[in-house]
Automatic annotation (TrEMBL):
Keywords (A to Z) from UniProt: Signal
Species, as recorded: Prosthecobacter vanneervenii
Domain 3-keto-alpha-glucoside-1,2-lyase/3-keto-2-hydroxy-glucal hydratase: from-to ranges: 28-228
Leader peptide range in chain numbering: 1-23
Pfam family, one: 3keto-disac_hyd
Superkingdom, taxonomy of origin: Bacteria
UniProt entry tagged with the keyword DNA damage: no
GO molecular function: hydrolase activity
The protein, known as: 3-keto-alpha-glucoside-1,2-lyase/3-keto-2-hydroxy-glucal hydratase domain-containing protein
Amino acid sequence: MKRYFTVTLPVALLGLALFNLHAETKGDGWQNWFADGSLQGGQIISGKATYKVENGVLTGTTTEGSPNTFLAIGPFKDFELEFEVNVDDALNSGVQVRSHIAKEGDPVPEGAKGKLPAGRLYGPQCEIAINGTAGDFYDEARRGTWWSILTKTEAVRTDAAKAAFKKGEWNHYRIVVKGDHYQSFVNGVAAADFTQPNDPEGYIGFQVHGIKAGTGPYSVRWRNVKFRETK
C-alpha cells in the first residue's frame, strides 16, 4: 500500500525525538527500517521534497524550488547502518549521520559561514553520487567541505573508492560510527575512515537534494535498510 506523508515544521520538531517501535527487529539487534510501510518515526525537515514507502522501498522525490530536504530519524550515538541505494543520474543525495537541527537563537555552528535557519539539518553526510565522491563525508550546511580533507585522510579515497559506485544500479552502503570513528564502505570498498570529536550524537537523515529551476523531478530510492545501535 502506498503511503504519503506531509509534515509541517512545528510538528516535525516536536516529533523528531520519537522512535518507531514498530521496526522489525532481529535477535542480533538489527532493525529492518521501512519494512512496515511507514517513515520509521522520522520527520521531513529543511525542505519540501516528498517521501513515500512502498514495498519496503523509501523513495524521495524532488520538488522544484525546494532546498535540500531530509527525512530525519533519531537521535543516535554509536550505530551501524546498511542499505542499498539507487539515484537518478542527475540527482545528488546522501545520508546524514550524527547531524543536528538548527533552532531559533542557536549560535552559529563552529565552522559555519553564518547563522542557519531554524529547522535546517547540518553535520556529517555520507555522499551518494555518480561523480566519484560516493562514500566520502561532506560537512553539510556547516564547514562545506569533505571530512577526508579536514581530517587529512584523503589516502582512503583511492581509485577503487572513487569507482565503487555504479551508475544506474543499486549500490550497497555500510556506515559504521563508533565513538569519534567514522567509516563507510560502498559495494564492499572502503570509502571513508576518519575520526572527529565534534558530533557525539545526532540524527540520521535521508537526503533529497535541491534542484535547479526547470529541471526534475528526480528521485532517490533506498531499500533493505538495516540499522542497529552499538556500544
